[in-house]
Each structure stands twice: as structure tokens, then as C-alpha cells.
Amino acid sequence: MARETAAGIRVINPGVLTLVQDLGRFGYQHLGLSPGGAADEHAFLWANRLLGNPPGSAQLEICLGGLQLQAKVATRMAITGADLQATLNGRVLAPWQTFAVTPGDRLHFGHPRGGVRGYLAVQGGFDIAPTFGSVSTVMREQIGGLDGWGRPLAKGDFLPCAEGTGPSLRVPWRYLPDYQRPLVLRVIASDQSEAVGAGLLEKLCQSDYQISAQSDRMGVRLSGEALRPQQGGIVSEGLGFGTVQIPPDGQPIIMLKDRQTIGGYPKLGTVFPLDAFALSQRQPHTTVTFEPIALHDAQGRLARFYRFFGV
Amino acid sequence: MTAWRIENAGADALIIRFGDTIDPAQVPRIRVATDRLAQGLKGQVKDLVPSYTTLMVVYDPVQNDFDSLGRKITRLLGQLDERQPQVGRLVEIPVWYDPEVGPDLERVAAHHQLSIEELIRRHSECEYVVFAIGFAPGFAYMGHAPESIATPRLATPRERVPVGSVALADRQTAVYPIATPGGWNLLGRTAMILFDRERETLCPLAAGDRVRFVPVGRAQFLEAGGVI
């Protein structure tokens, strides 16, 4: 509140849930700190790229909209991800492109028309001090975010950023995702898949699953054909991004960014990260299916994706 | 020589598996492997996550793929001796065992038909190893407590376990680093801070460290900054 004269963005209304995010907190998982980070790196990386920012520059992840901001700076911003029906001083703003703001401008977000999470980036990134190397907000752990204590944005918060100018740019249409499209999750089999239960991975790939409303940044819960592993639990071990866990009720959980670092449910495999990003943009009750992908193929595609964005 | 094997854990992580069952003797090997990879793969790994029987390696798929990193790991680990000499630091954790801060002390003692003094003696006389840190920042899973005091988790977890609570579940023991919901049996409390944001290393414990619980009195607990 004290930085009224500084350049930045004022939070008028934080909306449903708005979090400061970057590409995650690494180097602390052995101490139990979740990596966190932008749920949908595809949308996140495009927003920074449009503005010429370093790929990991801090942004706002706006879950389900309702956010209202007022600019106290003249700069360029970009919106990507879910279509949250954003307006600038009442005029409709198309997502997946940059726009200019001047002091006093009001930026409002409505309800999602498609997708779950919108990303708002500013030229040069929001200037927020990292906690343990990252600004990523992990609410459960009370780590990261604006003041380091893992809280979501609140009314009156001030997000410092620099002034900026630059060209108007938009993401080429061929790269725009359609969050309404049926989603196929490509899954990399784990070496334990068969030991977990013979034929279980095939069963996963032959069934339709619905996204449960009890899904969040930690994981997406699915409901559909129950899978019954040989054993209810395994010795706890590290959990990678996109891990397909099978809890005792047999309904798969896909572990996302705010997952715990180790877990003891049987694991069938790992969802290809680009598909896990897309999964985080699917609304509850959407149907998803699975199909296998070879590890080598998945790694090649993922490396191309990160190279494209300079990560 | 027991073999270890490397498995994928998705497109950006792999798991080195050292065994399939929990075994305190396995822990020093995993600690040695973790230290070796931390040195030898500096700048090439994003996280090394040791757990009971495994070590997860999180890496950048632009820099390495599963095969290339696997080869480097194989070269660095070579043959890990089945038994490693004692590795990891020995950390002493002072504990005030008392029903006032250990609300399950009396019930656990009664469950095993032991006096409270005997339960405390058995819990504090052995040296534990840290299997893994997880569940919450700084929450160290340690074992094994003597079979004679192994106690199942509470049927209904507490909504809030106070910070510093020293707890027992089956043959594992732990200290709650922050106040969280939890289902372990609470035997006492320590003034030691298990997750300290101001400290460079954040946690006094790492997987592979060894731990002894040292019984102290109420006065010592309070003097060390303990909160009731």
C-alpha cells in the first residue's frame, strides 16, 4: 500500500483465485517443497514470448476470473490461456495478444468462456522477490507469492512493474489451443505398470474418464472405470509431473504442479507434460481419454517445445 | 552387490530403484548415491528426491534425455557397495515427553502394557535414520522404532497437530515441522525448529541423516524456546 508513487498494477478485486506464478521452484523437493509453478506452461510461455520477456518472468494465473485491476503504469501486457472475457475500460480484449495500458486503466476479467486459467503478463515481468528461488505460490505450504507466504492476491495488493512500450503482437492462429476439444492424454508407461496390475494400463487407455470437480493445482481427479492394482500402496517415492496415481477407490489422479514431492499410491505411468498442461484448462465433467506414447517420442516433443520458447 | 536400476518417471524425471522394501540399511546407499549425483551432475539436474528405496532425478529434457542421463548416472554410481559405512550427520533432537504435549503418551504406553517411562526409554534409546522428507516441508520420516512400541495411526486424524510434536506411526517416527492436520500418535514435543525459513539449509535434517531423541524436562524445553 505504501508504494503509491511506484509504477505497477493495483488489485481492486482478486476474483476467485489469482496467484503469482513462474516456472516453478526447483532444488528444494528433497526437503518436501512442492515445485509449484504455472499450471499451463503453454499459455504461460506464450504470454512472456509475446512481450519479449525471459520465459520464466512472473505472471498472474487467474483461476475462473473475477479479477479487477487498475494500472498505475504505462506499459504493455498480454493475456493468454482461458478466455475470461477480459475488458479494458469496458472494451473487449481478445486473448492471446498484447495490449497497451496507461495509468488509470481498468482491466476486468469475467467468467471463463473456455478453459479454466488465464495468464496475465506484463512487459519485463512483475517485480516480485522470489522465495527459495521462485515466486510460485504454493498455498498449502505457505510459500511464494507477493509476500513470500503463499497467499493468493488480495484486494489492495500492489504488483510493481516497469514502464514499457513495444509492438502489438498476437499468437498465430495455428498455435491457439481449443480448450473445448476432446482431450487425449498421452501416457508414458512406467516400468512398474505391469507390476501394478496386469493389463491396467490398457484398461486405462480403453475407458472414458470424467474430470471431477474435486480437482485443483495439486492434481486432477478422474471418475470412470475403477482400476484395481494388485496392492493398495507402494513404498513412497518421488512423484513426477503428470504421474497417474491409483488411490484405493480405483479412480485415477493426475498429479500436477502443486503435487506433494513423494507419494505411496501405485502409479501406472506419467501423462506427457503438454497434455497435462492442456488438462489443467479442462473444466469439471469434461471427458478425457488416454493413449500410450513412447518415452523417446515424448522427450523429443517436449524438448522441441522448450527450445521454441527458449526455456 | 545388490543391483539398482533406472526407470522413467515421465518425460522429465527418472527414478533409480535400490530395492523394493523398506530397509534402514538401504538408506546410506541412497545417501551416497544422492551426494555423488549432486556433485557429478551439477547444473544438469533440477532436483534429487531421495526416498525409502528410490532416488528421483528431475532433469531438463532439452539438456538430457533418459538414455543420455542414464548413461551418466551409471558411470557415476558404478557399483555402490551393499553396505556403506555410516554416512549422514548424527542429529540430536531434545524432546519433552509428557502427557501435556504428548496427548497419546498414556494411551500408547497402555496399548503396549508399558509404563510411560519404559515407552520413553524405548523410543529414545535407538538411533533412527531419515528415510525421506515429504508430506510437508521439513517433515522427516524416520525409522525404525522398536517393534515393541509399533503403534497404528489414529483412526481419525487430528485437525491440527501443534508444531514440534514428536510422533509415532507403526515403526516410523517424525516431528511435525509446521502445525498441520495429522494422524500420528503424539508422544512429546521438541523446541527444535525442523523447517526454518531463515536458515540457509532450511532443515536440520536430510534423508540419510541419523537421529537420536534426547529426553529433556519441561524447564529445558521452555528454555530452548518450546511452546506449550
Task: Please give the structural blueprint.
The complex is a heterodimer of chains A (311) and B (228).
Chain A lengths: L7 E7 L2 E5 L19 H10 L8 E5 L3 E5 L3 E9 L3 E2 L2 E2 L4 E5 L4 E3 L5 E9 L35 E3 L22 E7 L3 H4 L3 H7 L2 E3 L7 E6 L12 E2 L4 E3 L7 E3 L6 E2 L3 E5 L1 H7 L7 E6 L2 H14 L3
Parallel strand pairs in A: 12-20
Antiparallel strand pairs in A: 1-4, 1-11, 2-3, 3-10, 4-9, 5-8, 5-10, 6-7, 6-9, 12-19, 13-14, 13-20, 14-17, 15-18, 16-17, 16-19
Chain B lengths: L4 E4 L4 E5 L9 H14 L4 E6 L3 E6 L6 H12 L12 E8 L7 H7 L4 H10 L2 E6 L6 E4 L14 E4 L3 E5 L2 E4 L4 E3 L2 E5 L20 E6 L2 H6 L5
Parallel strand pairs in B: 5-13
Antiparallel strand pairs in B: 1-2, 2-4, 3-4, 5-12, 6-7, 6-13, 7-10, 8-11, 9-10, 9-12
What structural class do helix, strand and pairing data of chain A support? alpha+beta
Strand content of chain A: 25-35%
Helix content of chain B: 10-25%
Strand runs of chain A, count: 20
User: Termini of chain A, distance in Å?
Assistant: 34 Å
Strand content of chain B: 25-35%
> What is the average of the pLDDT values of chain A?
96
Largest sheet entry of chain B: 7 strands, mixed, barrel
Number of helices of chain A: 5
Q: Describe the sheet with the most strands of chain A.
A: 7 strands, mixed, barrel
Briefly summarize what is shown.
Chain A is an alpha+beta fold. Chain A is built from five helices and 20 strands. Chain A has a seven-stranded mixed barrel. A six-stranded antiparallel β-sheet of chain A has the order 7-6-9-4-1-11, with no helix packed on it. Chain A has a five-stranded antiparallel β-sheet with strand order 2-3-10-5-8.
